[in-house]
Design a protein that fits this description.
Radius of gyration: 17 Å
Strand order of the largest sheet: 2-5-1-6
CATH class: Alpha Beta
Distance between the termini: 13 Å
Number of strands: 6
Structural class: alpha+beta
Order of helices and strands: EHHEEEEHHEH
Largest sheet: 4 strands, antiparallel
CATH superfamily: Dimeric alpha+beta barrel
Helix content: 25-40%
Number of helices: 5
Length: about 120
């Protein structure tokens, strides 16, 4: 079964935030890079893309036949999706094990695992 894993950075430090990133030791920084490299090298993983900050987004809705465009995210959220990956696993336990290896999960963020609709028949 294929699972989509949404990576919510939350408060986890990233190189894009130099002040927060500097709070990690050089060893911890290298471990984050190594962990992401290991994830993308894992059999069954299809790397997604890292997304830009939520405030760079545009939200589109159609109401009453009119297209409404809002700059930024539609709602304020503490944890916005920062990226995603797709993982083909035998079962949810395998997907959970992989998600636990994503650095954001241990550094203040969260990983949402969702089965692909193509595999659930919906």
């Amino acid at each position: 079964m294929k699972y989509v894993m949404f990576i919510f950075q939350g408060d986890s430090p990233t190189p894009r935030d130099p002040e927060a990133w500097a709070k990690l030791s050089p060893e911890e920084q290298q471990q984050v890079f190594a962990d992401y490299q290991a994830l993308t090298a894992t059999a069954g993983v299809e790397p997604g893309v890292q997304m830009d900050d939520p405030q760079t987004s545009t939200t589109v809705r159609v109401q009453g036949g009119e297209t409404l465009v809002t700059d930024g995210p539609f709602v304020e959220v503490k944890e916005a999706v920062a990226g995603y990956l797709i993982f083909e696993a035998d079962d949810l336990d395998g997907a959970i094990e992989l998600a636990s290896r994503i650095p954001a999960a241990r550094l203040g963020g969260a990983i949402e695992i969702r089965p692909s609709a193509e595999w659930t028949g919906r």
